[in-house]
Design goal:
By secondary structure, the protein is mainly beta. It has a domain at 1-40. It is built from no helices and twelve strands. The strands form six sheets. It has a two-stranded antiparallel sheet with strand order 1-2. Strands 3-4 form a two-stranded antiparallel ribbon. It starts with 8 loop residues before the first strand and ends with a strand.
Length: 106
């Protein structure tokens, strides 16, 4: 059961999942069949993996080798770890890969 906000919509993707889309937002579906609510003023970008990702205003959408699209906030640096996943490194921090190959803020 998905709670639907007043004035919003309940949209279902091809994968069968129901998503609550608030009033003023946009419901977009990626190639993978998932429905995603994109807030007003945001951008919906799709990676090679077929997932739709909301990118807020002023952020940057970057894609790693694994095909996932991620939102990198203003002032942050997008670095990719050995596993191919893109992550945001915050100002004043450095990116260090952990034992699993994922990049972390240190």
């Amino acid at each position: 059961m998905v709670p639907i906000p007043r004035g919003g919509l309940g949209l279902q993707g091809r994968d069968g999942r129901m998503v609550a889309v608030p009033k003023g937002a946009l419901g977009l579906q990626g190639r993978d069949g998932r429905m995603v609510a994109i807030p007003k003023g945001a951008l919906g970008l799709q990676g090679k993996d077929g997932r739709m990702t909301p990118i807020p205003s002023g952020a940057l959408g970057l894609q790693g080798k694994d095909g996932r699209m991620v939102a990198i906030a203003k002032g942050c640096l997008g670095l990719q770890g050995p596993d191919g996943r893109m992550v945001a490194i915050h100002p004043g921090k450095i990116g260090v890969p952990d034992a699993n190959g994922r990049m972390r803020n240190k």
